[in-house]
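The protein record now logged underneath.
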Amino acid sequence: MSPLPSSGVSPAIKFSVIILTILTFVAFGVFFFKLTGKVTTSPKEQSWSLKLRAVGDKLKSEGLYKQAVAPYTRFLEHEDIDLKTRAKVSQTLGELHATLGDCGEALVWFYQAEVAGPDPADKDVLDSHIATCLQEVKPGRP
């Protein structure tokens, strides 16, 4: 048997190049997955943040208004909430603050609801809440 023609590169160098190439691909793959993981919210995290509204609803229904504020607020920190939902939850937060006697903070949420564009059925109620809180915050106002 005659020996195979040599390409001029030793098998040890060929093996090292192949291993380093594979390691480079793996490293880029890990980097890509870590990068996309930081850019997007994981489905598990996303689903929990969306469930915070339900936690706020439960606390509110039990009359625990002060405790309901935090989950509703954290729910609104999620960026993918449509404007109709954002308006509804902001109005709910305003109502909670008004019930707790803090019309200044209630107005912050009522105005956010107004800017987000409330459902037409909620518009009159929202306007009424705003007028009531403005009267309390600025008593001399007509």
